[in-house]
Write a structure and sequence with these properties.
Two copies of one chain form a homodimer. Chain A contains twelve helices and 26 strands. Chain A is an alpha+beta fold. In chain A, the strands form seven sheets. In chain A, strands 6, 7, 8, 13, 14, 16, 17 and 22 form an eight-stranded mixed β-sheet that branches. A five-stranded antiparallel β-sheet of chain A has the order 4-3-2-1-5. Chains A, B: This is fumarylacetoacetase.
Amino acid sequence: MTIELDFTHDPKATSWVESANGHPDFPVQNLPFGCFSKDGKNPWGCVAIGDFVLDLRKLADTLDVGDTRKILHYAAQSTLNGLFRIPGGASKLRQRLFELLTDEAHRALVEPCLVPMAEVHMHLPFDIHDYTDFYTGIHHATNIGKLFRPDNPLLPNYKYVPIGYHGRSSSIRVSGVPVKRPSGQTMAPDADEPSFGPSKRLDYELEMAIWVGQGNELGEPIPIGEASSHIAGISILNDWSARDLQAWEYQPLGPFLAKNFHSTVSPWVVTMDALAPFRVAQPPRPEGDPAPLPYLLDADDQAHGALDVQMEVYISTAKMREAGDAPHKLSSGPMTAMYWTMAQLVAHHAVGGCNLQPGDLLGTGTLTSGEEGGEGSLIELSKGGKQPITLPNGETRTFLEDGDEVIMTAFAEKDGFARIGLGECRAVIVG
Amino acid sequence: MTIELDFTHDPKATSWVESANGHPDFPVQNLPFGCFSKDGKNPWGCVAIGDFVLDLRKLADTLDVGDTRKILHYAAQSTLNGLFRIPGGASKLRQRLFELLTDEAHRALVEPCLVPMAEVHMHLPFDIHDYTDFYTGIHHATNIGKLFRPDNPLLPNYKYVPIGYHGRSSSIRVSGVPVKRPSGQTMAPDADEPSFGPSKRLDYELEMAIWVGQGNELGEPIPIGEASSHIAGISILNDWSARDLQAWEYQPLGPFLAKNFHSTVSPWVVTMDALAPFRVAQPPRPEGDPAPLPYLLDADDQAHGALDVQMEVYISTAKMREAGDAPHKLSSGPMTAMYWTMAQLVAHHAVGGCNLQPGDLLGTGTLTSGEEGGEGSLIELSKGGKQPITLPNGETRTFLEDGDEVIMTAFAEKDGFARIGLGECRAVIVG
């Protein structure tokens, strides 16, 4: 696998959509796919370009796009599952759209297909059949492990097995949908019996979402060398967690109600094509860590399998919004905090024969950088809820309160290339 | 909630489909729904009646069924999700079909819609979006707990929380599809490092499948008193498990590859209507066990929330089949081994706001009776693989070998009512 760059990565390329040029998220070099609607109800496919979405259904009706006609038909459906089922389909379409949006000659025909982003509703990009959440953030796993198992923070399997569990797909919502605080059982440290009520330790988790493109048949594993070709792209994921419910329920079968009340994902699928300039080597494992088993080890994947993407998480409390204060940055860190590559997650998931399908969502798990200011959750920032953090307006938080909005962003930035943004993953807590 | 019996439960009722009368599984009092095809590819809805399936698409095209016309239209789709989305739809249709199949006057029109069961392929009844596996078999949980945690078999949360986890829906297959032995990481007791290879401790799990009918909106829990009305019906579930993979991977987030390579479900959705005569009181909890928390406690549910259904599991090895030997019964037990009622599982699942959807599958977890001969898995029968069991032909087993077929059946039987069968859940292991 060599990472091939093409004309779509040319940093000098500009679009006749002027807001795209120098846009922090959506220059013409990005062209992430999503699903939008004007009525909030009936979505279909689009790409983001500057301050607009390009309506792919209207484009399909407007233009003879030659050899991408069939691909465009799939992209215009109500979800992107069909588009990413076609081998190479999204790549080809992205290249064609790049041509249409950079060449002034196409402007007259294409411009009527633009809709201001401010006027549209974004929907989930895929019909997500299965959602798997991994646990690749080794610093997060260590921090959480210390809280739940002080004597045994990182279990012996962690450095061999890409630990993951099946999540709930029905409760995944797109950025912007409010999150209702869940109720459930909790066991107070000094209590004889559990009690029932709203979670008092509601938290966010800063993750990245990896979308499966091409799937595999049941019983047919995906070799590590082919795994990255099964990835459609990435988004930002907030895997909301009720820590008090989690502590009481999670043994022995893992988190359940603590996580299944809601997960929030950003609307744009930023393709692996758009991110090609930002592929980097997987950071070397610390001295003494075991090498991955052969089914997880591929030289090319080690050389190019990580992504140089930066993530940030902000909070905006109700009081801050009333006062007109800007959101406050809680932490930031790199996606390279993953102990396993994306391809290793795919290969591991399928190695026993489990079939992946287009639109399956793989969460990276909370990514904590391991440095001060790089904590991916409040439970880490507040040391298990023992040390409240203080916001600029004097408010304090150990966990989330009603009215708090959590805003995550992510981007890739590098000299010699256009900055590629992932947009926002945000939601407000309601009681 | 009083359990109302109606004309469809009359044990004296007979059908003009003669094979249905006295049929051990599919008398006219049952009429379970399923999805069949003639080509193995394009299924649609049917019900089982004796040795036949009644083709609901053809019936819809043939007959003016009056007020059930719209319901029949949904039942004729490629999955049953639409049918069970209609409040009361399946109940009404079952009553109408009962009339058509008992009254000789309808025979001439309806008979052409029958297809011999031996000539059809059965498919999954639902598009299963989310699959949750519970752990309600307290005897199983105790037996397994002893193997994984000798000092701490039943964790403190077990009697308060209906323990469950999210499973993999993509790898659920209907009865009859061969199961490929999974490979994965295992850690030998005396090893320094894990090794990779085919599972050596492949096991079945005897469970019942509970199908969700009506769903709920995200953020809107289902009260315990309404929970049973959200259940469409039940089937038999074999949640195949690779015990060696499970032991190494399951901490701290639960089973993953050990369970997601394949699950097998029987094709027929036996409705709660058909099972109404077999609803019984939830067995009282052992002295000293805590009462369920209020959100899980409903007097009617305690009085009628359990099902008097018997389950059986058989093995048929390749040698047995070659010799023409009948399958050998490994164990049997009652569905009342559930520590929680079906309604309690539904109410718990949704109490934090998680939305259930039509066609979601809830597994009961392995049901072990607590008596000799009632073990729901091989790991229990073979005492953790330490005491091989001997089959009638002299073969021994600790875990499943390639060529072994596991066959599960279940039925409800009671004086004064027709016996209601669930059919079979079977699959053979291939290497």
